[in-house]
Amino acid sequence: MDDELNQYLSSLDPYSKYLSPEKNDFFKKRQALKQFSIGINILVGEDNMLVVPLKNKPAYKSGLTQAQYLKTLNAQKIALDNFDSYRFLTELELNQKVHIEVSSSLARATTQTYQVKPAKMDNPSIQYINGTYPIIRVYRFDDRDKTQEKLKKYVQQSLKAKKPIIIDLRYCPGGSFYGAIDATSWFLKPKLPVAYLKTAKSDNLTKFESFSGKVVKQQKVYLWTSPYTASAAEVFIRALQAHSDHAVVIGTETKGKCLSQQAFEFEDGSSLTLSVYEILTPNQQLCEGKGIKPDIAIKSNNILNDQDYLQYSKK
Question: Strand pairing of 165-168 and 135-138?
Answer without folding.
Answer: parallel
